[in-house]
Amino acid sequence: MADGLQQVKNWILERHPERQDIAPDLDLIENRLIDSLSFVEFVFLLEQESGVSIQMETLEVDAIRTLGAIETHFFAKTGAEAVQA
To answer: How many Cβ atoms sit within 10 Å of the Cβ of residue 84?
Structure first.
């Protein structure tokens, strides 16, 4: 797992001490690991860790629904192009 993605995972786990791990395909929103109160902070963290500028008005929720999707959209070598497309 890339360092940035691990930091994102750690951020989520810090807020949910009842969890030991997060599966790559677990729906973070449906399982309330990211809620409306933490959403903006989470997006800011993604920007910091990935180096990708995220436009809130064009952000596709599916791009941040799972750790697997986050890895694909923000941490894969072509992730920057995918997010801006």
So the answer is: 11
